[in-house]
Amino acid sequence: MGLKIIVLAKQVPDTRNVGKDAMKADGTVNRAALPAIFNPEDLNALEQALRLKEKYKGSTVTVLTMGPGRAADIIREGLFRGADDGYLLTDRAFAGSDTLATSYAISCAVRKIKSFDLILAGRQAIDGDTAQVGPQVAEKLNLPQITYAEEILKAEKGKILVKRRLERGVETVEGPLPCVVTVNGSAAPCRPRAAKLLMKYKHAKTMSEKQSQSEDYIDMSADRPYLNIAEWSVNDVETDDKWLGLAGSPTKVKKIENVVFQAKESKVLSGSDKDIEELMKELILNHTIG
Amino acid sequence: MNNVFVICEMDEGKVADVSLELLTKGRTLANTLKCKLEAVVLGHKISGIEKEIIPYGADVVHIGDDPKLSPYTTLPHSAVINGLFAETKPQIGLLGASTMGRDLGPRVSSALVSGLTADCTALEIGDHEDKKAGKNYKDLLYQIRPAFGGNIVATIINPDCRPQMATVREGVMKKEIYSPNHKGEVKTIDVSKYIKPEDLVVKVIERHMEKSRVNIKNSSIIVSGGYGMGSKENFNVLYDLAEAIGGEVGASRAAVDAGYADHDRQVGQTGITVRPKLYIACGISGQIQHTAGMEDSAMVIAINNDANAPINKIADYVITGDVMEIIPKMIKFYKKNSK
Ligand SMILES: Cc1cc2nc3c(=O)[nH]c(=O)nc-3n(C[C@H](O)[C@H](O)[C@H](O)COP(=O)(O)OP(=O)(O)OC[C@H]3O[C@@H](n4cnc5c(N)ncnc54)[C@H](O)[C@@H]3O)c2cc1C
Ligand SMILES: Nc1ncnc2c1ncn2[C@@H]1O[C@H](COP(=O)(O)O)[C@@H](O)[C@H]1O
Questions:
Q1: A46, A98, A147, A249: which has the fewest C-beta neighbours closer than 10 Å?
Q2: For chain B, which domains are there?
Q3: Residue A260 pLDDT exceeds 60
Q4: Strand partners, B14
Q5: CB of B208 within 8 Å of any CB in chain A?
Q6: Does any domain span residue A23?
Q7: What's the domain range around A98?
Q8: What is the mean pLDDT of residues B253-274?
Q9: Which ligand is nearest to the CA of B252?
Q10: Any binding-site annotation on B286?
Q11: Looking at beta carbons, which residues of chain B come within 8 Å of A132?
Q12: ipTM of the complex
């Protein structure tokens, strides 16, 4: 008996490899220098899903992402690596969501998908580093949660066995299915794209993407339904507006300060207490460390 | 009512450091707000635990002592906290940004529909004017945290929802006894009132210590050591510095070849290419094969006893001197100034 697995994946700016051109001269974030990528720990989650799919015949892996239209890339990336299908949840009504409003919208989409045995998420997304959406989706769906998973050892007969990575050690826990599991970056890395799947799904598109294609675009999805990426707007999932977007977000950003990096001109310091203390103060003050 | 709450965490029979640090911060916040500081501790066989907590300034300690609360699992803990918070209506709720706090916090904030800000580096009290809505807010919790991989620092507020919740990592706040003679009241939580049988579905089967794998590529701060570190033992100061400032340890090939560090830490042409926010090169000469793997770092600090080491050319800060003298000083002055 197979498992129906939903993987929550987010498209994020690549904030890890910021390098020199991450900030513009005026001190604002240079988003153009930060490519949009599949959130790294969501790839770890996808890998756990794909391993379960191999282990339990008849299992399916569905990628669910919420974001702007171009987040359809996340679904395609999932398909290239072995997922079966995906949903893009996209609507202006979701703009400005904090983690709570995001979790609410995602939980509504999951309810609409309806039948599932397991929801996998990454531990956290690198744009915010909050690690909140997984547990909040679990709470909204009234499901148990298992966070910081490093390996899913078993998922059968209504039970799941998970190895968790904690600060100072590991823990093995058993929980019921369905549940929500968030996967750590220390879990196995995701397998690469498969050439065969890349060929198969290269032209998988959402309705909006198809509509924005030029006239000579040939739509082959009529006899290849797997090339349709489901796209849901707020009207497709049952939601209550008051929990959505900016209005549904209890947290507000009051102020943003940019961390300004220094120009490359070496400052030479001695190893004296005074010099080292000055340096550490400066690094703390400009938020390089701490 | 409307007090500042700290959810304390147990660590091998004692109150975790991060919780004591939060109590210290919570005391300051409560003084500013002229309200009480209350602590919550959940666990098993923890009677008398208030003695560890009250000196840090707690006016009330809520204790839930029950086998269902140890070892930690999400649902029994969140059931108790949700229930307690619904009754006591805190204005602020603080937790450690530990595996426990970051597991429990979002669950509670979702159930209470309150905002939660993860990994704050500073907490302050301040006012807010919402010009659009024409509303003024007094005494909100400013939750200050880096975002976007540390490229921006954001101040987050929760104007309308309570409690205002935040998590803070261990070591970020200062831990200080408020008064050894501080008086606090103990309140026993009737755990059975909150925990339902279905909250016990997740069971801890076993738990043990295990070293984790390294992943320097995902670290925004790298403290890297070269052959100039001199020995494997000397590399320990690099781990200390990395731990203090929240980074990982990297190494040059010469250091790896000499057995000072494992291969999975090697930076460079035949190692890993990194572009962190901060790269501290300690006793690394800066041969092209090494710099190829790190020259795009946003900031480079080079520590070398040779004022003409090639690495200095690409460094933002050049410290000329002995690594074993300088690195301990960096740790010392970081700790002194970071709180
Ligand atoms: C094909 C090829 C691939 C390579 N790939 C890599 C690679 O991927 N990564 C890599 O790192 N290297 C690589 N190398 C090796 C590279 O060329 C250098 O040999 C190596 O980087 C040197 O390491 P190092 O700077 O630690 O050692 P050294 O060059 O020996 O430098 C040690 C430095 O420490 C300083 N020092 C000594 N004592 C102290 C002290 N007490 N306090 C402060 N400073 C002190 C010295 O002044 C010196 O600058 C490769 C080489 C080849 C040929
Ligand atoms: N917009 C989104 N779409 C799909 N999944 C998401 C989204 N935001 C967060 N998640 C999932 O929740 C995890 C934690 O995100 P965060 O709380 O933002 O750190 C991510 O690793 C994803 O698995």
A1: A249
A2: 4-200 (3.40.50.620), 221-337 (3.40.50.1220)
A3: no
A4: B11
A5: yes
A6: yes
A7: 4-243
A8: 88
A9: 1
A10: yes
A11: 102, 105-106, 109, 116, 118
A12: 0.79
The CA distance from A94 to the nearest CA of chain B, in Å, is 17
Ligand 1 centre distance from Cα of residue B259 (Å): 13
In a domain, A218, yes or no: yes
Establish whether B155 is an annotated binding residue. Answer: no
Whether A239 is covered by a domain: the verdict is yes
pLDDT tens digit sequence for B13-51: 899 989 999 999 999 999 999 999 999 999 999 999 999
Amino acid A218 reads: I
Average pLDDT over residues B242-264: 92
A and B: number of Cβ contacts within 8 A: 263
B98 inside 8 A of chain A by CB: yes
pLDDT at A263: 39
User: What is the predicted pLDDT for the residue at A18?
Assistant: 59
Specify the CATH number for the domain of residue A159. 3.40.50.620
| Residue A276, in any domain of the structure | no
pLDDT digits (tens, 9 = 90+) for A199-209: 999 999 999 99
Number of domains making up chain A: 1
Distance from CA of A215 to the nearest CA of B (A): 39
**Cβ within 8 Å, pair B119-A175:** no
| For residue B260, pLDDT beyond 60 | yes
- Selection from B54, B296, B278 nearest residue B185 by Cα: B54
pLDDT of residue B172: 77
Mean pLDDT of chain B: 93
Contacts of B201 in chain A (CB under 8 A): 144, 175-176
